[in-house]
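Summary for the steering committee. The consortium agreed at its last meeting that each partner would contribute one worked example illustrating the joint modelling workflow. Our contribution is presented below. We chose a case with several input lines so that the handling of multiple components could be demonstrated. No manual editing was applied between input and output; the record is shown as generated.
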Amino acid sequence: MTLSLMKIPRSVDIEITNGCNLRCTYCSHFSAAGDVDRDLPTEEWRRFFAELGRHGVMNVTLSGGEPFYRQDLQDIVASIVENRMRFAILSNGTLIEPEMASFLAATGRCDSVQVSIDGAIDITHDSFRGEGNFVKAVNGIRTLQRSGVPVTVRVTIHRKNVRELDSIASLLLDGIGLSSFSTNAASYMGLCRKNTELTQLTAEERSLAMETMLELVEKYPGRISATAGPLAEALMWAEMKEASRLKNPRMEERGFLTGCGGPFSNMAVRADGAFVPCSQLGHIVLGQINRDDLLDIWQNHPLLWQFRNRRLIPLSSFEFCRDCPYADYCTGNCPALAYNLTGEINHPSPDACLRLFEQQGGRLPERLLHPTPVT
Amino acid sequence: MSESLDTKITANPLIVLREEFDDWALLFNPDTGNTFALNPMGVFIWKILEQGELSSAITRKVCESTQDAPPDAEKQVEDFVLEIVRLGLARKEGERDS
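What follows is the complete predicted structure of the assembly.
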């Protein structure tokens, strides 16, 4: 039941700026708990990267806001490189210039720039991200490709693109020529909470998304992935349903709030320099960079240990899970979603509840429940 | 002993040593993203390499540090150090006898 704790985080997620040129309808920021109104100067980040390097942190993921919104991004990246780390950048793709792309490529340390693309055509993508941004994002991807920067795409599945997923996959994999992309879904965080009716999938749409994504996974083997959203849920829920049907014993690492292993290997920092356990849990402040010692916070902070120890809380202790036939096979899923939906971190996320999904009329894809026998 | 007897070997300064709670560690090459696991003896040797040391001295220090060194300890240390060099994690310098 216990994951082994690393002596120091393997990677650190940094919201390098709270600024962004867009206001996407389902952004997990802007009205999220822990939003801040100031960015740190370059020098503060330099000092912090030196500390990360001394301790042997291997990877930094820069997000925002929009990382390319910062005028000093090259200086920030240079400091990461100087301190013997690799980096990734999460971006809306609209501000990527050739000079910047060349710089990133020249570092040799960029694992990826992940660009958000949510439509096969501009109308779909721009419906929630603003007019003109589809073309800019695709141009951003092409700029990165021309410079040789590893580029990936994240597709956020929502109500307006759920019937366009096959076209999106074709655009990304056949048209733009990406090696792969990943998906998630508009989730009840940040601005999405104000726009849930517009953006979040109904149970019926979720079922459709699962079916479509599984077809696409078969069509493009090994090129589509998901750690959240309909594809990930379909695979996990089918496994849970089968285990329940067979009345299997409790699965390893299931039946407890084990849905997040992040706090055993990762940590996050807000744009104002506050240490937080995860970018989506920005209200849990653990300390401040360049004032508090990273190692001490990582190894000793009581709030971080509380967060890690949620893995010891059985799902059977929640009224929400009472008499659930899937409880022994469930992880309770994302603590940030649980917090946003219930006000409690130590609670299973209702968004990831198979029983609730079925009660709402959701159906898992037949191909998972009754796989075609191999002949 | 092999030709590496009098060769000074120094850890590549780019390589990061990430020590873990169980006294094992990872060597991380940020240019490639590759990681290599080290057991406690490997960590001991790596720390010698960080200072730069003749390969014969490395073997001697290892043997001095353990009470029940196996008969082939010298060969094991040599092989380990040569593998470290082959992987680009350390470099030979200033060979005295060529």
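Chain A touches chain B through 15 residues (CB under 8 Å). The longest helix of chain A spans residues 203-219.
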